[in-house]
Amino acid sequence: MFMPRLCLGVAAPILLSMAALAEAPGLGHPAATEEIAVWDISIGPEGAGLPPGSGTPRQGEAVYAAKCLGCHGEKGAGKPNDQLVGGIGTLTGEQVSVKTVGSFWPYATTLFDYVRRAMPFDAPKSLSNDEAYAVCAYILQLNGIVEDNAVMDGQSLAKVQMPNRNGFVPFSRQK
Amino acid sequence: MGSKRPAAGEPETAAGNGLLDRRALLAAGAFLGAAGAISSRPVFGAAELKVEPWMTEPGAPFSGYGQPSRYEAKVVRTFASAPGTTGTGASRTPLQRLNGTITPNGLHFERHHSGIPEIDPDAHRLLIHGLVKRPLVFTLEALARYPTETRIAFIECGGNTGALYQKEPAQLDLQASHGLLSCAEWTGVRLALLLDEAGVEAQAQWLVAEGADAASMSRSVPMKAGEEALVALYQNGERVRPSNGYPLRLVLPGYEGNMNVKWLRRIKATASPTMTKDETSKYTILLSNGKSLQFVFPIETKSVITQPSPGLNLRGLGFYEISGLAWSGYGKITRVDVSADGGKSWTAAALQEPVLPKALTRFRVPWRWEGGPAVLQSRATDSSGQVQPTRAALIAERGARTIYHFNGITSWAVDEHGQVRHVYA
User: Fold this and answer.
1) What ranges do the domains of chain B cover?
2) Is B290's CB within 8 Å of A41's CB?
3) Which CATH topology does B302-423 take?
4) Is A171 in Cβ contact with B297 (below 8 Å)?
5) B376-408 tens-digit pLDDT
6) What is A44-159's CATH number?
7) Which of A81, A157, B41, B321 has the most CB atoms less than 10 A away?
8) Count of pairs with CB atoms under 8 A, one residue in A, one in B
């Protein structure tokens, strides 16, 4: 008496899900290009997605003093949070490795991507594109990677050669 | 110490230092030999077997959402935040106080990069775009109508057990050393189904997944991994907790935790990796030669003894169950060997059924502690043939300049007082 009902109860959802799989639910809405542009804040390593705007180390120094120094210290020296400057040449040998933007990060585009989406910590996404370019320019200049008079923008940032650009090997389990 | 001859009726030892055969527990009367020991213990009197107050009046009323006994108040996550922040850092699962394989939702470990967002599900959207024919936006209401799948999967932070690379064995309890590891039943929509609807272009080999937290944490995921991925709506039967990604979490079984993006709001199909902060400056393994391994995605074969473990000291001689967890991002755990003599001899542990791929697997082995020093170890093997390496072998291969993806054998030393501490052996 109980069994047939139980069997029905089990069989029905299976049939339902098979039917659903055979025919895609199609419940997503088409996304408008403008809508995507607002959401898509990813910057590729070749610079794809870098927005208009520009900044220099000097401009960046002012932004840094106002919005970054409290966590990252004088001239990116770190403390209480991550060190941003220095450590270049410390990745090999027996010495303690100091991993900073300058010594370790392979792409300058990642710096812009991260600063714009996540910094400053207490007000992420509040920097203008000019401010974000300027802060990147300042951090790169402090690391000796770009000149004092460099202008960082959608073209120049992607061309910056980071010291550890060739320091990464894709992992594979095959030895 | 010499191994004692078993008394009549006691199980034979299966490996050195008192390890018993895993089947000993199943055989009825296997421990009849212990009856002699029982008769020598003090007799429980009427004082212990009295009628307790909770038996003489009605108990507590109903509650909307159940809580653990107040006597279990120690079973909580421990956490630390980055300087000057709250909710940015990690909380750890109290693995030494749990059993089985499923982590209760309130105890699942967390790693947040800018706190836990309070997301209104009606306002939340998932965008799929990039190298697709039809960019699509999904509401939660829409996703809830899709066919769902359920998958039990562990999630482990790529930085879990990073302290085991240190020169000297860190004296931490299991929660502090191994607690960035949890396992849950995840229910959601297969990512592949949503990608199919968007129509992924042939040149799209990667995805970049992004969360709706203040840090908009993002990671590149190989398209191939997306085949197994779930866009999870439910965790252990209830909606995913805010601390684990409410209302949507990307679940990539076997892959390092950071890639299982919480608060999922955007997936972009790309030809190559986006090189985000968390796949370049973090979660890469700096080798001795100055090069760094990148895209180390699956967690490699790993296990640890959870009971006993540092802080859970032995109280008296005799029987103990050695219990622990094994897991691999490459498949199923096929075997766990346990040693009580620092790896000189091993016996296979019993595995709790069902053993599922890319899920925590509980192992157990009976042990008779005879009061001497012991070094307890576990060694897992998975269905891909991978065997958990010794710590020395792992470090010989990868060095010790990193905190990521440590999967070496872990050793707990038991001294003659029953104190358990972490050693390298």
Assistant:
1) 302-423
2) no
3) Immunoglobulin-like (2.60.40)
4) yes
5) 999 999 999 999 999 999 999 999 999 999 999
6) 1.10.760.10
7) A157
8) 155
